[in-house]
Design brief:
alpha/beta, 8-stranded parallel beta barrel, 4-stranded antiparallel sheet, 57% helix, 8% strand
């Protein structure tokens, strides 16, 4: 559920449901994907959310954690853990279950979530089972709380019991929740001191503080506990609401920031400080990190911004780190990326040559030798036959030019800078593209021109694979959830759907080319049957099959590079990539649509997929234009 699908499709649907129902559906889906074979690969493919080594903190792979309010029982963490998080929180957890049937309420306009029972959970035994079966290796921190009616002595006993049991089953650390205790600062201090004494050598301990804690109470707390017994604090994301409820959302960001500044001013400098207060945009996380937080936790922001938020925060953190670093030297043209540029240029030239041939003679001398027949004899047999063959060859030519433009641009702006997504896009496309040159061999027709092109271009591809270490993206990144970003998610969705559609179309055309060769509308246009073609010249069908299979393979190769670019490459302010999508798509659409109308092959059903793809292409470009050409207010 990347942002391009969450913001456009799933969020509007989920927000129409009762909050508990929407939460259950979402967590069940993430849990199912996380458990299924290939689920991790699917999540990685859709979101490209592998954390960068630049984000490592020593105790976490990234400075972004998942708040326990998202998945308090830990039922979907196998899937959620793969979204770019460095650690996860489970909880709150109490020794006995605390349940509520009151509805959770969402205020989408203000981005607020109201929890009727802030300590609702299934109890310690259920959480222990979930911890044991989490299915991921991220550090798991558990937020624990005393039962609402517990006395001071009972609270200490419950906290100690929870710490003993949870650390025994793999909890990396414990957050001791003080939100129900902090009103009486003296009582809170006594309980925390006693808990720290009883939990010596039991693991990492954090004090969980509410946002908006006053300076007087914080100062009193720090003066009356042994700060060295604690590893840090977590500034929570909930503030009290009417009737014992709690509200979480953007409204607590300012109070959380003030509490963070007080903790850094009054608390030990060695403390690790995590903040869960109102992180809804990458710039919110940056604000907390710049003011002394070591990490942030995503709660309500994950609901309103979408599952891509942790990756966007990670991208912003990387951008902040590399902005001040020295710009690395540009690798030589002949090192690796230049060879892919040459491969792209070769495909562009080859595509134009093939287009000119298809517009003129259509058949090459070796085609006529294979058929033992001249083009005039084909025209005399059926006036539409050469037109039909030219329509396959012109669409193939346009597709080759489009691929060449995409390869050249991704090499010049992506491979040269060590961008992982660009390398993956062109490499995967070439891997599926080169074998497709030879799909036609099954029909016994050998195309010397295709073979020569493959022989020339293949070494360029192999040379482009020479060692090229991944390097971080140095351009601007998305930091705000503004209208332009939300519109861009629709544009990205258009290109993802376009890539998938072209991939399906390419595979279908290739499959038809190596099996039945024709679709019914082809035969209607030709006014012939395959039997009549065979009776006239039994080598005609293999020659047409060669064109079909080659076009299908090229279209699939084009779809692969486009799809990976749409999934992973779209970023704010990347004008070059918008122009690449524009000019990379034009040759294929111009060729495919113009030739059909030029030869009179205008069957509605036959052209419907092409017009659908063209509509996605145009809509995607329009929707992405402001995002990929502008500067957002977060920079």
């Amino acid at each position: 559920m990347p942002d391009w699908s969450y913001q456009t499709l799933f969020r509007p649907l989920l927000f129409r449901l009762p909050a508990r129902t929407a939460q259950r559906i979402t967590l069940s889906a993430f849990g199912a994907v996380g458990r299924m074979p290939g689920g991790a690969f699917l999540i990685k493919t859709l979101g490209h959310q592998e954390p960068s080594p630049l984000l490592e903190t020593g105790w976490s792979a990234t400075p972004v954690g998942l708040s326990g309010t998202i998945d308090p029982q830990g039922i979907a963490q196998r899937g959620l853990a793969r979204l770019g998080f460095g650690f996860v929180e489970i909880g709150p957890v109490t020794v006995h279950p605390i349940r509520s049937r009151e509805p959770i309420e969402l205020d989408a306009k203000q981005e607020l979530i109201y929890f009727p029972e802030p300590f609702e959970n299934e109890g310690l035994p259920a959480i222990i089972q979930k911890l044991a079966a989490s299915g991921h290796n991220l550090p798991k921190y558990v937020r624990i709380a005393a039962m609402p009616d517990a006395s001071d002595v009972e609270a200490v006993s419950q906290f100690t019991h929870l710490i003993d049991r949870l650390t025994a089953v793999g909890a990396a650390g414990i957050y001791v929740d003080t939100t129900s205790l902090i009103e009486d600062a003296s009582v809170c201090c006594r309980i925390l001191s006693r808990v720290a004494e009883c939990a010596i050598a039991k693991g990492t301990l954090f004090i969980y503080l509410p946002p908006g804690l006053s300076e007087d109470r914080l100062r009193h707390l720090l003066q009356h506990i042994d700060c060295s017994a604690w590893d840090g604090v977590v500034i929570g994301g909930e503030q009290p609401a009417e009737g014992g409820a709690a509200v979480q959302g953007s409204c607590v960001k300012s109070s959380g920031l003030e509490t963070l500044r007080l903790v850094r001013q009054l608390g030990p400098s060695k403390w690790t400080v995590k903040v869960a207060a109102g992180v809804h945009e990458p710039q919110d996380a940056a604000l907390f990190l710049q003011n002394g937080a070591d990490a942030v936790l995503l709660g309500s922001g994950f609901v309103f911004a979408g599952p891509g938020l942790p990756k966007r925060i990670n991208d912003a953190s990387i951008s902040d780190k590399v902005t001040s670093a020295a710009i690395p030297e540009t690798p030589s043209f002949w090192r690796h990326w230049g060879w892919m540029c040459l491969l792209g240029i070769g495909m562009i030239i080859g595509g134009f040559i093939a287009w000119l041939i298809a517009l003129s003679s259509v058949l090459l001398p070796y085609d006529e030798r294979f058929l033992h027949m001249k083009r005039d004899e084909l025209i005399a047999f059926n006036a539409h036959l050469l037109h039909f063959m030219s329509h396959d060859r012109i669409t193939l030519s346009g597709t080759l030019i489009s691929i060449g433009i995409l390869y050249y641009q991704l090499a010049k702006h992506g491979l040269r800078d060590g961008l992982h997504w660009a390398k993956t896009a062109v490499t995967t496309s070439c891997i599926v593209g080169f074998p497709s040159f030879f799909l036609y061999l099954g029909y016994g027709f050998f195309d010397p021109l295709h073979a020569a092109a493959a022989i020339i271009l293949l070494p360029m591809f192999l040379l482009s694979l020479r060692k090229n270490p991944d390097r971080p993206f140095r351009g601007p990144v998305s930091r705000v959830n503004d209208r332009i970003w939300k519109r861009a998610m629709w544009g990205q969705l258009c290109f993802v759907v376009l890539g998938v559609s072209l991939a399906i179309g390419g595979l279908t055309i290739a499959a038809i080319g190596v099996t039945q060769v024709f679709v019914p509308t082809d035969l209607t246009f030709l006014r012939l049957t395959p039997a009549e073609l065979d009776a006239f010249n039994y080598r005609l069908v293999p020659l047409i099959a060669h064109d079909r299979a080659g076009f299908g393979g090229a279209l699939f190769s084009d779809a692969v590079v486009l799809l990976i670019t749409a999934l992973w490459g779209i970023q704010r302010g990347q004008r070059w990539l918008w122009r690449t999508l524009l000019f990379g798509g034009m040759p294929a659409f111009i060729a495919g649509l113009s030739v059909h109308y030029g030869i009179g092959y205008t069957d509605f059903i036959h052209l419907l997929p092409a017009w659908f793809a063209f509509a996605l292409y145009v809509a995607g470009l329009i929707l992405l234009y402001p995002y990929m050409h502008g500067v957002d207010r977060g920079d």
